[in-house]
Design goal:
Layout: E1 12-18, H1 21-29, E2 33-36, E3 44-48, H2 54-60, E4 71-76, H3 87-100, E5 106-111, H4 119-128, E6 130-133, H5 145-157, E7 166-169, H6 177-188, E8 193-196, H7 199-210, H8 214-228, H9 236-241, H10 248-260
Parallel strand pairs: 1-2, 1-3, 3-4, 4-5, 5-7, 6-8
Helix pairs in contact: 4-6, 4-10, 6-10, 7-8
Length: 277
Amino acid sequence: MPSDTAGPPAPLRLLFIGGRPALRTALAASPRVEPVTDPAEAACALVDVASLTPTAHAEACRYPLPPSLPLVVVSAIGADRSTDANPYLAEVARAESTATRARADHCVLRCAPMDVDLVQVARQISDFSTVYGCFTDGPVPWLALDDLVDVVALLAAEPARRGDRVYELTGHETASLTRVVGRLASALNVRAEYHPLEADQLVTALCSSVGWDLDMALRVPGHQQWAGAGHPTSPLVGKALHRPPRPLDACITYAVAAVTRPRDDDQPTSTTKGNRS
């Protein structure tokens, strides 16, 4: 006898064009989407132009797509206000413009710094009990990667929510990097401090001490300055998902888990040479 109870909707087929490997992993784990590699099978495409590593960024900007395929673009909050003073934001802004140009059905998600951006911070704490960098110390509304995936799934499934719109996504709870370093250190059961460096000092340290290639290292100061800047919170995640965004504790847990499991491509290390976001 057939049941009158409808089952969960089938996952929406989503073409992930390029960007952070961590985002690809999160999409694969989501019950709401089914990543595919053939544009002909996809109901929507997703591209992440806010990745930090050169290889991931190049992948995200190198794609031919059927003009009729809807597109969701993951960008960085503040990309609309970018200047050449911050090379990271300027690069993201150019990529966002290229991705959306002449596309009839798209939307842009300008995201606050995310838990995946905290993974390298957690690694420094775990490896060196110190965080070196160019972060400022503003109130940052850290966004959980899983919340981004849930919003992407919603937008991919509901065309009326796209409509060439731009959304700013943040967490609901702000925390400065100094506070986050303390929370990460406590979770890792170590002591740690943050020591600011000038941009050229940071690039030299990443190349000589950590082993990153120069192209990757040159991107880091602008990314850190952007990530540590103060950003206002946005209510859009809560409105879209009808629940509060995941709390800062969830972002801390994500970053700690990433450094306590075997290393992968979530973050650049001396061995991966920048094959992360």
